[in-house]
Design goal:
172 residues; alpha+beta; 8-stranded mixed beta sheet
């Protein structure tokens, strides 16, 4: 179940984020392992303040986190490829799962639950991106029914800033 995060949850969220950073580093991925420290506690506290940060709860335990953002993302304005829609959309960022819950379809469950939240806001699609070498996340995104649309360039970084971009059209 997805619920909105509160500032009191920040340490548990950061533990999950740090787990994800360590996992990505063990896979020799620079994603989330660059000099800027992204995503930082400040990034997540901003998401909490904006009420865009969610926790995924299973058996009364926080096992995942994600941010569902309901405004245009500047990173998605230009794409080497083509988006499925030109309508309003939500984007999903900073999705991470406890290492103990990898390979249990938790990411897919989170993305499917996020769809219900986005639909309730009368938005027509969800966009998401990941590093092209982040195979587990790519598989999760595709398994949740997203379509590969092309490559975007992250604005916050000049280093290793290309990401594969995906979109899923929603039926409201």
């Amino acid at each position: 179940m997805l619920i909105k995060a509160k500032s009191k949850d920040i340490q548990k969220i950061m533990q999950i984020i740090d787990d994800a950073k360590n996992y990505l580093k063990s896979q020799n991925l620079k994603q989330w392992n660059q000099a800027d420290g992204y995503p930082t506690e400040t990034d997540l506290l901003k998401d909490i303040e904006n009420e865009t940060c969610y926790l995924y709860i299973e058996d009364n335990n926080i096992i995942g986190t994600m941010s569902i953002i309901e405004k245009t993302d500047e990173n998605y304005n230009e794409i080497n490829g083509s988006w499925l829609t030109n309508n309003t959309y939500a984007s999903i960022h900073r999705i991470a799962i406890k290492n103990t819950h990898h390979k249990k379809n938790v990411g897919v469950k989170m993305l499917l639950e996020a769809e219900e939240i986005v639909k309730s806001k009368n938005l027509y699609s969800i966009k998401i991106d990941t590093h092209n070498l982040n195979i587990p996340m790519t598989k999760t995104i595709l398994k949740a029914g997203y379509t590969y649309c092309g490559i975007i360039t992250l604005k916050r970084s000049k280093e290793d800033n290309l990401r594969d971009a995906y979109e899923k059209k929603l039926t409201i």
